[in-house]
Design goal:
130 residues; alpha+beta; Aminopeptidase; six-stranded mixed β-sheet; 31% strand
């Protein structure tokens, strides 16, 4: 939960009990996972990935990435990109035909980060197609 404080300025921590309840629900949600990046014993990056069943594209699922975060002291070292690459590889291994993410940020550096990680700007979101 401390890492999520680095997600955005207006992100407020959940109380421990609520966070544990939501975490258990997330882990029980079929197709969802939280990827973690550690340096030594410190958690420095994370993202949530959800594989979503699909009735189109010959039944190939798609993936949604959310809550991409890197600790402020470790930004610019490639950890966020490693998270996105790991999420993408996991999605491909599950047969997904695309990986999607959206950002509310208009910061050029944030948009460039996603584009440099292989995501294409389309409409108001990003996607990465296999």
């Amino acid at each position: 939960m401390q890492l999520y404080l680095h997600l955005s300025q207006n992100n407020h921590p959940l109380d421990q009990s609520t966070a544990q309840h939501i975490f258990r629900k997330l882990l029980q949600f079929d197709g969802s996972t939280i990827l973690l990046g550690e340096v030594g014993q410190m958690l420095v990056s994370s993202c949530t990935l959800v594989i979503i069943p699909n009735l189109t594209r010959r039944g190939a699922p798609y993936a949604l990435v959310e809550n991409v975060v890197t600790h402020a002291d470790h930004q610019g070292r490639g950890y966020g990109t490693l998270m996105l690459n790991a999420a993408t590889e996991h999605a491909w291994s599950c047969g997904c035909y695309k990986v999607m993410l959206m950002t509310g940020s208009r910061e050029p550096a944030t948009l460039a980060f996603y584009e440099n990680a292989g995501f294409a700007r389309t409409k108001t979101g990003f996607q990465k197609r296999r």
